[in-house]
Amino acid sequence: MKVPSILLSASLVLAVAAPASAQFGLLEQGAKRAKQVSDFTWTDQEKAALGAKVSELVRQRYGVVQDPAVHKYVTLVGRTVTEKTTKPGLPWTFIVLDTDAVNAFAAPHGYVHITRGALALMKNEAELAGVLAHEIVHVTEEHTIDALKKNTLKSAAAEEVSGGNALIEFLANAAYNNILDNAYSRGDEGAADTVGITLISKAGYAPQGLGSFLTTLAERNKSATEKRGLFSSHPEMQARQDKLTATITKEKLTGTQLVEPRYKSSITYKPVPQSQIATVAAGTKGLAGGSSTAKAEPAAQPAKEEAPKKKGFGLSKLVSGGGSESKSAQVVGSGGARGLDPEKDAKGGGNPAVVAVKVTPADVQAFKKAGSLT
């Protein structure tokens, strides 16, 4: 499929060429320079197109757990939280990524991704609600769009843009890399924490759920020499925990439900230590045909130094399925081998297809009632 050209003027216009593929379209051949970053505006259609493409890149990278029951459960928890947001009507899509890494990602217009590695580390539904709420707030407050403007569009405005294909590829790669690198401002991350626990408390969940999960995560990562994976860009853990505690007191958050039995019956994954997470060679998507039950590969022997890793995947290469970035993942060993990040560079599953689940308002109400939620 030929990708059309792009218009850059006082606003950046992205359109969907075909709903099935969520391609970015260009409405007009145009200018070589953007005006000012503050002048960029996004329609709902543009946000939907961007979110769909970024989600596709994330799914291609890590694969998707092909289990409808798990997806329906996570969706019900997510929808219980989104009902309390300012944007309950977004087409929310909750996706469980097929990797042992502990991570979660938000993409514009309602896409929330969480790894089975993160689910394996959780003890109850309140913890899941807390992590989902954090990502949900990134969506409702449009932190992903803001990060794209601050981290990417500023440089785009300073450079000449000679063709639409190049800019589309630039934006798709940039948004993808931003969320993998957790490239949010400290203020946005703090807001995602505090607004998130307020949302889950309104839903009836114990607001301590997020802090409880972070404590478990800190214990798991205590031997790591770098901040990696989920919330890696946050302030130090103790300061963050203190802020969560202060918010619970200040806002008088009174949710109490942990919903532990239902969580344990719905999620049965076992956590993998960070040091044992299988990673993949640079320049690959991570699709090594893994499954939800695949065990980490044994550590590899030291190898020759590799060429620098490319940033992201080109949109045209992804659409065509060609190019060096599309080759199958090469498992190179357990976490930390050859300097790889065991969370970001984790091996993924082999199927990127979205698992369609049907959740009705009646389903959500029944789910809330069974969990004594509001």
Estimate the global geometry from the Cα principal axes: globular
> Within the largest sheet, what's the order of strands?
5-7-6
> How would you characterize the largest beta sheet?
3 strands, mixed
Radius of gyration: 20 Å
Distance between the termini: 47 Å
Q: Kindly state the mean pLDDT as a whole number?
A: 75
Class derived from helix and strand content:
mainly alpha
Using DSSP, what is the number of strands?
A: 11
Helix content: 40-55%
Tally of DSSP helical segments: 12
User: What share of the residues does DSSP label as strand, in percent?
Assistant: 5-15%
Q: Which H/E pattern describes the elements?
A: EEEEHHEEEHHHHHHHHEEHEEH
Show unreliable segments: 1-38, 160-165, 287-330
Brief synopsis:
The chain has 374 residues and is mainly alpha-helical.
What does this structure look like?
The protein contains twelve helices and eleven strands. The model is unreliable at 1-38, 160-165 and 287-330 (pLDDT under 50). Strands 5-7-6 form a three-stranded mixed beta sheet, sandwiched between helices. It is mostly helical and 374 residues long.
Please describe the topology of this protein:
Layout: E1 7-8, E2 12-13, E3 15-16, E4 24-25, H1 44-62, H2 68-82, E5 93-97, E6 104-107, E7 111-115, H3 116-121, H4 125-140, H5 143-157, H6 164-180, H7 186-202, H8 209-220, H9 237-250, H10 260-266, E8 278-280, E9 287-290, H11 315-320, E10 331-334, E11 348-349, H12 361-370
Parallel strand pairs: 5-7, 9-11
Antiparallel strand pairs: 1-2, 3-4, 6-7, 8-10
